[in-house]
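A reminder from the course coordinator: this example appears on the midterm review sheet, so study it carefully.

Given structure:
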């Protein structure tokens, strides 16, 4: 009887695992024929498991997005999420998949971006050229397939963590209305995000504001290093002085890299709810 029970439990676990694997979304390559400048790079991605269980990705040559689509996207919002890792690696669970699942369950389409890493070992890429091209392409791709995914093309934003926050900010500073001469129809789409959320972003001194800059949500920890904990306050002031809607949260008990983990505690653990509140303040949650 005991063996039968164990066998039944094992079968249930196998079937449950198979179901979860089947349900997990699949990556979509940003360029089906290879990213510009990376066509000859054949190396596979490398994944290591960090001490806390996070998956950390390196050696990215085929940038992609992984879609987390809600059963019903009433608001039409989409957010492209760029994990951090110092441009050396991507901490893709607590700064990628976990937030994406949260937003999907809140009825928001989320896309986890794997972008090329400028500081990876023997990297041939740069942030300003290749990583920026990746997030711009992700924005264009989501706009191009907006109807298919029930997304409002005026509600496509970016969210970035640490180095990913730097990249998200860059996409809101360097953009175009589409490359109409391209034979690739995806390139015809506008690359400007409609909103930006920067979570403890890097290189805040490089962040500038223009008249076309989208609304900004800024978040960080008081215990983070000064260029971030003080830098995001300076970015807030720039946007405030330019008259662009901006919200800033600095949590006294937080440092760097808290992202979204099940064991997060304190006020900083509730930041996703504050982000949802901000979307509501902008009236983006309305159908």
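Designed residues:
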């Amino acid at each position: 009887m005991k063996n039968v029970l164990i066998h039944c439990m094992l079968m249930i676990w196998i079937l449950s695992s198979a179901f979860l694997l089947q349900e997990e979304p699949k990556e979509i390559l940003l360029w089906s024929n290879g990213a510009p400048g990376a066509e000859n790079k054949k190396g596979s991605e490398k994944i290591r498991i960090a001490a806390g269980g996070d998956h950390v990705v390196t050696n990215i040559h085929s940038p992609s997005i992984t879609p987390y689509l809600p059963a019903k996207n009433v608001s039409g919002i989409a957010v492209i999420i760029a994990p951090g890792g110092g441009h050396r690696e991507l901490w893709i669970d607590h700064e990628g998949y976990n937030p994406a699942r949260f937003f999907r369950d809140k009825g928001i389409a989320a896309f986890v971006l794997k972008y090329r890493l400028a500081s990876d070992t023997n990297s041939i890429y740069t942030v300003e050229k290749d990583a920026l091209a990746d997030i711009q392409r992700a924005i264009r791709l989501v706009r191009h397939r907006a109807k298919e995914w029930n997304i409002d093309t005026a509600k496509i934003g970016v969210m970035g963590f640490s180095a990913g926050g730097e990249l998200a900010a860059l996409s809101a500073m360097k953009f175009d209305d589409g490359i109409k001469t391209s034979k690739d129809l995806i390139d015809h789409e506008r690359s400007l995000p409609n909103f930006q959320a920067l979570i403890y972003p890097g290189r805040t001194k490089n962040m500038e504001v223009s008249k076309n800059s989208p609304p900004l949500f800024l978040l960080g920890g008081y215990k983070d290093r000064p260029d971030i904990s003080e830098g995001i306050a300076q970015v807030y002031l720039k946007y405030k002085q330019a008259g662009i809607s901006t919200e800033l949260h600095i949590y006294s008990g937080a440092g760097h890299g808290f992202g979204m983990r099940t064991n997060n505690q304190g006020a900083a653990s509730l930041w996703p709810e504050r982000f949802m509140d901000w979307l509501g303040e902008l009236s983006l949650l309305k159908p």
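Confidence is low (pLDDT under 50) at residues 2-22. The longest helix spans residues 2-23.
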